[in-house]
Prior knowledge:
Layout: H1 2-21, H2 65-68, H3 77-85, E1 99-100, H4 114-123, E2 128-129, E3 137-144, H5 151-161, E4 165-169, H6 171-176, H7 178-186, E5 190-193, H8 206-224, E6 230-231, E7 237-238, H9 240-248, E8 252-254, H10 271-280, E9 287-291, H11 295-310, E10 314-315
Parallel strand pairs: 2-8, 3-4, 3-9, 3-10, 4-5, 6-8
Antiparallel strand pairs: 1-7
Helix pairs in contact: 3-8, 5-11, 8-9, 10-11
Amino acid sequence: MKSRRMMALLISMCLVMAVGFAGCSGGCNANTGTSSSSSPSSSRPSSSSSPSSPSSSTPSSPTSPSDSVPPSSSGSTSTSKAAMGTDFSEIGTLSAKSLDWGPGGPKDDKNRSQGALAYQNKYGSYNALFIGPDQNTCYLTFDEGYAFGLTPQILDVLKEKGVKAIFFLTKDFVQSSPDTVRRMIDEGHVLGNHSWTHRNYSTLTPKEAAEDMMKLHDYVKETFDYEMRYFRFPSGNFSEQTLATVQAMGYKSVFWSFAYVDWYTDNQPDPAASADKIVAAACPGNIYLLHSVSQTNADILGDVIDRIEEKGFTWGNPGSL
C-alpha cells in the first residue's frame, strides 16, 4: 500500500512539473517567465522591416499599462513596485530582435523622413514617437549622457528665445549636475529618462530593462519630486520587447526625426554648415536630437531657432507630445 501511494505521489508531481513548464519555450527563463536577451529564440516573431520600407500591419500592443502596473502614488516606491510587479510573460512573446534607429529613407513632399513615418506607423501602437503630428511645429530634444559644462549656455539661449526642450538624462548627469537639473525644472523644460546605465536595452530582458529605467525614475522622483514620463533608448537601439516594456512602465518612447554627428567633443562639426543642415531639415512634426556636449550646438542654437521660425515653423512644448 505504501509503495502504491508513493508511486501515485511521484506521478502527480511529474504532472504538475509538466504543466508548469509547458509554456516556457523560446529562451524563456523558467524561474521568472521572462525571455532571455542573450539568445532570443528563432520561434519568436521578428521585425524584418527597415525605416525605408513601411510595414502594412501594425503590431498589437501587449497588456496596457493600466492593466499591469499599479497606479502611481506620491511615494517613490510605487514605481519600483510597478517594475517588480508587472507580468512580463506576455511581453516576452514579442520579438527580441535588435533594431537600430536612424531617420533613414527619402523625404516626402513635406520634407519629412519617410523612415520616421514608416516606423511611426509600425511601432506607434507601443506609445512610441518617431515624428510629431503633421503640423508646422518642431520640437527640440537634447541628450545628456554626461556633464560637459555647456548645458547652462544652452539653457540661457532657450530662456532668451522662449523655447522649451526635453533633456534626456542619465544617472551620471543627474548625480553630477543637480543644480542644472533643478534649473531645467524651474524654467519649464521636460526631464526625460535616458536610462540609469546607458546600456543597450536590446541585450536586457524586459524585467532588467524595466528595473534599469525605473531606478532613474525613482531617483529623480526622490531627489527632485519630479515624475518623468518620456524615455529615449540609449543609442536608439530597441526591440518590440523593450518598446512594450517602456510602455508598460507608463512611459512614452521618444525617438527623433533628425540627428547628425555632433557628439565627438574633440572633432566638432563646422558651425555654419551645421546650422544650414539643421535648418534645412525643418518639417512638420520634426523632432530634433542634439547633444549637449557639442560646442557647435551651443554656439549656433539661437541662430537655428530664429531661422526655423523664419521658415514658418513654431517650437512646440515637448511636454505635450
